[in-house]
Amino acid sequence: MPNIIKDQQISDDSWQVWRDAATLPESGGYIVPLTLWLEHKDSLKALGDIAVFLASDESPKALANDITELNLIAVDFPKFADGRGFSYGRELREQLGYKGELRAIGDFMRDQLYFLSRCGFNSFALENSDLEESLASFKDFSESYQPSIDQRLPLFRRR
Amino acid sequence: MYIYDHFDRQIVSQRVAQFRDQTQRYLDGKISDEQFLPLRLQNGLYIQRLAPMMRIAVPYGTMSSIQLRKLAHISRKYDKGYAHISTRQNVQLNWPKLEEVPDILAELLEVEMHAVQTSGNCIRNTTADQFSGVAADEIEDARPYCEIIRQWSTFHPEFAFLPRKFKIAVCGSKSDRAAIMMHDIGLQISHDTSGKTAFNVFVGGGLGRTPVIGSLIYENLEPQHLLTYLEAILRVYNQLGRRDNKFKARIKILVRAMGAEAFKAEVEKEWAHIKDGDLTLSAEEIDRAKSFFQSPSYETLAQQDMQALALENADFARWLQHNTHEHKIPGYRIVTLALKTVGVAPGDITAEQFEAVADLSERYGFGEIRSTHHQNLVLPDVKQADLLALWKELDKLEVASPTVGTLNDIICCPGGDFCSLANAKSIPIAEAIQRRFDDIDYVYDLGEIELNISGCMNACGHHHIGNIGILGVDKKGQEFYQVSLGGSQGLEASLGAILGPSFAQNQVPDVIEKVLETYVSLRQPEERFLDTFRRVGINPFKESAYA
Hints:
The complex is a heterodimer of chains A (159) and B (547). Chain A is an alpha/beta fold and 159 residues long. Chain A has one domain: Rossmann fold (3-Layer(aba) Sandwich), CATH 3.40.50. Helix content of chain A is 21%, strand content 21%. Chain A has helices at 34-39, 41-46, 84-95, 113-118, 131-134, and strands at 3-6, 9-12, 16-17, 30-33, 50-54, 72-77, 101-106, 123-124. In chain A, strands 2-1-8-7-6-5-4-3 form an eight-stranded mixed β-sheet. The longest helix of chain A is centred in the middle third of the chain and has 12 residues, at 84-95. Chain B has 547 residues and is an alpha+beta fold. Chain B folds into four domains: 6-69 and 78-110, Alpha-Beta Plaits, CATH 3.30.70; 142-289, Sulfite Reductase Hemoprotein, domain 1 (2-Layer Sandwich); 306-396, Sulfite Reductase Hemoprotein, domain 2 (Alpha-Beta Complex); 411-545, Sulfite Reductase Hemoprotein, domain 1 (2-Layer Sandwich). Helices cover 36% and strands 17% of the residues of chain B. Chain B is built from 18 helices and 21 strands. In chain B, a hairpin with a 5-residue loop joins strand 4 and strand 5. In chain B, helix 1 runs antiparallel to helix 4, helix 14 crosses helix 16 (508-522) and helix 16 crosses helix 17 (529-536). The A-B interface holds A 56, 59, 80-84, 86-88, 90, 94-95, 109, 111-112, 114-116, 118-119, 136, 140-148, 152-157, 159 and B 5, 7, 10-11, 14-15, 18, 21-22, 31, 35, 38-39, 121, 148, 151-152, 154-162, 235, 238-239, 243, 273, 278-279, 281-282, 285, 288.
């Protein structure tokens, strides 16, 4: 069972990413593409636990009506330099009011963990890195100028 | 000047530690070249043709004498004893060693400096009018707002991996000395009839291979909304900006593709979610920022007659006319130090000059120095009575060439001598032109002319907005130069028109000479190069250049 980082701890995880947007999986436990979810919501829900991932060009606005039904939403980073997902994270949390698990998947890197968590991500399927060592990156900074999910007040209101 | 509190100090100090760790992991092979690239870029570190190049941030071009001395020390200890003032008012080192960069950052922190976001696809150093706070034509000092923007944009978690670099400039004067129309966002401070501060927001300007003048998308934005509005613009850009082609990834391409009105509508939609939210600036915060930029303790002095001063000495008189500007306080003058010595790359400065300028800024001012996007330095608060003495000192330092604002005040990128992006060398072109036009009386007779040189399309030398622009191009492996005319910065910004087919390096001074002769033969009394060009168009210049 692969490990992920969740709430700044290493934990077991059984979710698998289902990238085929044309075929339905045969069971639950998959994180499926947004398009598949939008088209086959009812069939997918009948399979059991189902989560959805956004590709980097898919705005979370498409999930506005499903926010309370989903316990896990993932954002896929096709390349670590593609920063659209950072905005999607904030939009899901701050505008759509999503409270469930928000997971980064794909080609992001350890040195982005701090910024990702400030944008609302709390779960990280981090590949090709030592997870234990990577935890240190959450503590890159102990203070920030901007507001975030865990600190609603910008620094200038706390000085 | 802004002074760090324990929060600022802690943030920059943790950045130093973070980069030290990243560099070590890179050297240990735990981070790939590809992954290390954005990490080092966001610390101002390029790997260039000959060595790494490191860009040190000078927020809105303001430095203290203490910081200048530290830069002198750093350039001596970690480099070859000189540094370079960039067209973004920053300071560049040309030869630092990668493994020593964390130590350089630690030394910079001692004087409240850093290299944060001086490169990479993030929000870059915010620039401002180099005469902010002292200009006679100032509406309001831009620096407090620049500092507010600096803090908001520093390590902004959402905008560290944008489609492309993002540059913001603020101007608080009637004349725009910050080229705000050529920025991703340009902010023009204005006062309404009751004297209240507001911002006109221009978006989507820029140079590079597709030069565009910014579009005004919001008039009279109230200061408390500054950050929420900026955040809305950035969020739209981060989601919709192109990422498939790096040459089409700047916000100017997005604004042009959508149309300024449609872009504005997207921003307004996003803004509606966050306007009046947590990021709304409080009056206390604006006052706090302003408290760092109070006027120093000026003496009450009588305004002196500049013409009488000029009688002292003819060389001094020339310098006075070209290298000094009107100050808002009677009896004071703003002095520009020309870093344009013939034979030295424009903007280069030695460790000894840094130290001498630091001393002069204390003797003839309040220990403050500005850097300019024309790659010069400024002493902002010089008493008129001290000008002659200061001029003698500057002359000894070889920073008193009385050519500010003339043909020989060339803006020039590092070019092919240093930069791995360049198609052609630019520094030798600048030198050849300066040598050709070494008759100062002729240069004065030509009057106000901006000549800008870039070694490639990326336009670090701002060639599009030079009255005369020179662009290095690669033609089958040979270095050639394309000349454009009629560009200008400021509130009446325009982009240069290409003269015609490009020229070989040795032809460039001749071509410039023909262009200037054409101007002299066609100009009307008191007409600047730019005015003549706008009146007669490009054809007469074309005819003489290719005759």
